[in-house]
Design brief:
mainly alpha
Length: 106
């Protein structure tokens, strides 16, 4: 998705505000998918696992922002945290409630 967006950005100029919303949406998709696939493997405690996946991704993103010097504490930081947690919760619950598991027992 990011590579496709990069190709589009070569030809179309996006505003900073739109790019900010796109990055928040991509962060939400990442948190959803990570919790979904992790609960597909573990198959227990989907809500807790979703919170942990979303929280871990947010903390890693925050640490990388601090280390790179691009940290800007603004109104978007709590929005990103909420998006990570809620997307993680939805992914964890959805992953638990599916019938197919990604890890097959032998």
């Amino acid at each position: 998705i990011c590579a496709f967006l990069s190709l589009i950005m070569l030809y179309i100029d996006f505003s900073d505000e739109l790019l900010s919303y796109i990055s928040i949406a991509l962060l939400g998709v990442l948190c959803y998918l990570s919790s979904y696939f992790s609960t597909q493997i573990k198959r227990t405690k989907g809500l807790l696992q979703g919170i942990l996946c979303g929280g871990l991704i947010f903390v890693l993103m925050f640490i990388l922002s601090v280390l790179s010097g691009n940290l800007s504490i603004s109104e978007q930081l709590p929005i990103k945290a909420i998006v990570c947690l809620i997307s993680g919760i939805f992914g964890g619950v959805k992953g638990i409630n599916t019938k197919h598991t990604k890890l097959h027992k032998r």
